[in-house]
């Protein structure tokens, strides 16, 4: 009997000239698509940045910020018009998105938004509707003050990818759960950001970069039809059997078999049989299971964003190695505030290999990751040999957060949060603009 591996190798050796055109086309096609997307971004999307400055005395909870995210969702792409095959593959269409930044530097904590330039007034008025006392300052890219290439002779960097622990239908811990606690136990997660800022000197930067693209339930590109996926998870949790529609191939096969056997017996159409739905009794679930299903359904009922969370620590080399471990712990403790054992949370994955941080592979990976951090792309397009060196091969695969979860991650500090580390401003002297 011939060795299968030897047979495959022999086939490739004999017929490589047939495989080469297909392989070459695939490589050129992928390069063409990436280039078209890059050209589309450069030609049609001009980015702007604003810094949000919060006055002291804001008493609104993150529920107000959730309303802001509900309004910002209006720019979502239309799957039937925008996400067509021609737009995505030939024109290189890239939907509009936001990037929310929290940057700790020089014992200060600052909040920024990157957005398409034409949305400036749209964004301001949405924030003013909930926070009329805040101020905006138009700024350049807040990362432009850093060197173009890091690591270098003076600076080093460590970049992390924050991924969800479970399927994204499971919600993270949000402000709603905090509001339901007794007053003495209500601790705003932003407190940890505030405390972190006090530990960051003028030679260090701690950057939380949250990419957020509004998506809809029927979006096959961003979110992969997240409502449908969430409903399947609920059916699985309650033990409801999923009925799969037979494929066209299965239907044809069954038709041919019945046709051949027709002279001998009556046709049997299994693909047309419908299984009786088993009666489901919610009382069979434990209170904890019912609560989990209820929270998943709550998440699915709200508007969603396709997100990616990247965290970077940058410092001069004289303090990078000293503070690296403590900064890692600080980041983990910050993310733990959004985690629960029975639902969801974040795990922190370093994008470089463990071991010698000065190795050539880590140097190349850090340079690439830092460049993508600067251009605010959620997905890193690395060469094949470099991607194999990543700790997590699924780097850049986004996840869904709804408006409630986003508001918990990015919001003005609540009244009970200590003011330490936060740059405060006086109340606005001018009313918000009319529009």
Task: Give the arrangement of secondary structure elements.
Elements: H1 4-44, E1 47-53, H2 62-72, H3 85-91, E2 98-105, E3 108-116, H4 120-130, E4 135-139, E5 155-164, H5 175-179, H6 190-198, E6 204-215, H7 226-238, H8 248-261, H9 287-300, E7 304-316, H10 317-336, E8 346-350, H11 360-375, H12 384-387, E9 399-402, H13 403-409
Question: What would you note in describing this structure?
Answer:
This protein is an alpha+beta fold and 435 residues long. The chain has one domain. It is 40% helix and 17% strand. The chain contains 13 helices and 9 strands. The protein has helices at 4-44, 62-72, 85-91, 120-130, 175-179, 190-198, 226-238, 248-261, 287-300, 317-336, 360-375, 384-387, 403-409; strands spanning 47-53, 98-105, 108-116, 135-139, 155-164, 204-215, 304-316, 346-350, 399-402. Strands 1, 2, 3, 4, 5, 6, 7, 8 and 9 form a 9-stranded antiparallel sheet that branches. A hairpin with a 2-residue loop joins strand 2 and strand 3 (108-116). The radius of gyration is 26 Å and the shape is globular.
List keywords for this structure.
single chain; 40% helix; 435 residues; 13 helices; alpha+beta
Tell me about the biggest sheet? 9 strands, antiparallel
Order of helices and strands: HEHHEEHEEHHEHHHEHEHHEH
Oligomer: single chain
Helix content: 25-40%
Total individual domains: 1
In the predicted model, the low-confidence regions spanning at least 5 consecutive residues are: 416-420
List the total number of helices.
13
Q: How many angstroms separate the termini?
A: 79 Å
Shape: globular
Structural class: alpha+beta
Mean pLDDT: 80
Write down the Rg: 26 Å
**Total E-strand runs:** 9
The fraction of residues in strands falls at 15-25%
